[in-house]
Amino acid sequence: VQLQASGGGLVQPGGSLRLSCAASGSIPSSNIMGWYRQAPGKQRELVANIISGGATNYADSVKGRFTISRDNAKNTVYLQMNSLKPADTAVYFCNLRSLRAEFWGQGTQVTVSS
């Protein structure tokens, strides 16, 4: 399985970005897709994930600001990020996991700064 992430960039505080991650290859039919992030000097943390059936899970720090969604026909997961804060600055990683395996995409930098 390969994961291709896109959509990062530089945005001012209060702004919005949308990340996309397309999966390709032999994708398990039952899976969880999600986004993690890692800021300099910090551990990688879960931002949000979504199971193939649609249930979602969010980190407390992003609830009400970020929305995760997926298009199963396109094997793509999205992360809509609104009301961005400097604390959201990090490298964001796409993740796909099933019962038997876990896959990571390349990171995409999100920088929130004026």
Q: Which descriptors apply to this entry?
A:
7-stranded mixed beta sheet; mainly beta; 4-stranded antiparallel beta sheet; globular; 0% helix; 114 residues; single chain; 54% strand
Order of helices and strands: EEEEEEEEEEE
- Work out the helix count: 0
The radius of gyration is: 13 Å
Structural class: mainly beta
Helix fraction, binned, reads: under 10%
**Uncertain parts:** none
Please describe the biggest sheet, giving its number of strands, its sense, and whether it closes into a barrel: 7 strands, mixed
Overall 3D shape:
globular
Mean pLDDT across every amino acid position: 96
Q: Roughly what fraction of the amino acids lie in strands?
A: over 45%
N- to C-terminal distance: 37 Å
How many beta-strand runs?
11
Fold and architecture overview:
- The protein is mostly beta strands.
- The protein is 0% helix and 54% strand.
- It has no helices and 11 strands.
- The strands form 2 sheets. Strands 2, 4, 5, 6, 9, 10 and 11 form a 7-stranded mixed beta sheet that branches. A 4-stranded antiparallel beta sheet has the order 1-3-8-7, with no helix packed on it.
- A hairpin with a 4-residue loop joins strand 9 and strand 10.
- The chain is globular and about 40 Å long.
